[in-house]
């Protein structure tokens, strides 16, 4: 069974950058939709971005567009979320999630409820 492990979170100051990693074990992420979600206590989980590993199509929420970038490694075992110009509003627990694709699709069509494999989360705190 696919397992995901996130890393790279931490405490940063506003304007700084971080890169999160989502590493897959037991399987590669070929032909998957992989998404990053974030959640703040007391608020609903928000999808930040996603990528389809089959063709590389991506989606970014308006709140992060232009600042965050998703990518994969060549072996399709790791998905990255590179975050620039971090803001205090980006403070949250970040989760990666994966969904095996049965057909080529834009990753943005999938809701969080369709992702069936989740990592444990990594905390990002943006504060001066």
Provide an overview of this structure.
The protein has 128 residues and is mainly β. The chain contains no helices and eleven strands. It has strands at residues 3-7, 10-12, 18-25, 32-39, 46-52, 58-60, 68-72, 78-83, 92-100, 117-118, 122-126. Strands 2, 4, 5, 6, 9, 10 and 11 form a seven-stranded mixed beta sheet that branches. A four-stranded antiparallel beta sheet has the order 1-3-8-7, with no helix packed on it. Strand 4 and strand 5 (46-52) form a beta hairpin. The N and C termini lie far apart (40 Å). The mean pLDDT is 95.
Label this structure with key terms.
128 residues, mainly beta, 11 strands, 0% helix, globular
Helix tally equals 0
Q: Give, in order, the helices and strands.
A: EEEEEEEEEEE
Structural class: mainly beta
- Output mean pLDDT: 95
What general form does the structure show? Answer: globular
- Terminus-to-terminus distance: 40 Å
Low-confidence stretches: none
Give the strand content.
Answer: over 45%
Assembly state: single chain
The main pleated sheet reads as: 7 strands, mixed
User: What would you report as the Rg, rounded to the nearest angstrom?
Assistant: 14 Å
> Could you tell me the number of beta strands?
11
- Measured as a percent range, the helix fraction is under 10%
């Amino acid at each position: 069974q696919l397992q995901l492990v996130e890393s790279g979170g931490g405490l940063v100051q506003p304007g700084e950058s971080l890169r999160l990693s989502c590493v897959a074990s037991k399987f590669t992420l070929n032909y998957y939709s992989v998404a990053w979600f974030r959640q703040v206590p007391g608020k609903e989980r928000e999808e930040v971005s996603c990528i389809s590993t089959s063709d590389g199509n991506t989606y970014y929420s308006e709140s992060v567009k232009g600042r965050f970038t998703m990518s994969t490694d060549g072996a399709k075992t790791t998905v990255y979320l590179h975050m620039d110009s971090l803001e205090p509003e980006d403070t949250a627990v970040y989760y990666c999630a994966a969904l095996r694709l049965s057909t080529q699709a834009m990753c943005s069509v999938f809701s969080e409820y369709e992702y069936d494999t989740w990592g444990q989360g990594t905390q990002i705190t943006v504060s001066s």
